[in-house]
Amino acid sequence: MFFSYNDLRQIHIGELIRQQLVAQGMSFAEFARQLNVERTTVYNIFRSKSIDIERLIRISVILDYDFIAEVYQQHEPTPRTCRLFIPPELNSQHPYIDILLPK
After folding, report:
1. What is the dihedral angle through the alpha carbons of 37, 11, 23, 25, rounded to the nearest 10 degrees?
2. CB-side exposure of 59: number of CA atoms within 13 Å?
3. Is the pTM above the cut of 0.85?
């Protein structure tokens, strides 16, 4: 997807990580152990709107999920689509859904 600078400021990578962790059913303690950090650091990650790219790559490997593609993948924007956030309790497979808008 294509993001402008303003769009990137609205992305909350910590929340995306938390959603993926919950969707996979991994405990926060297990995630902290695999990341080799304290659980308090995990909670700080969840609250963070930005993250070091090396840490994001490590998290992507641990969760087997490509956060870099999710956040930064480039494509041509389409004026007739809209991306909506879906809370994990309603849809644990995908945190977003693309909607085709009427003409």
Report:
1. 10
2. 23
3. no
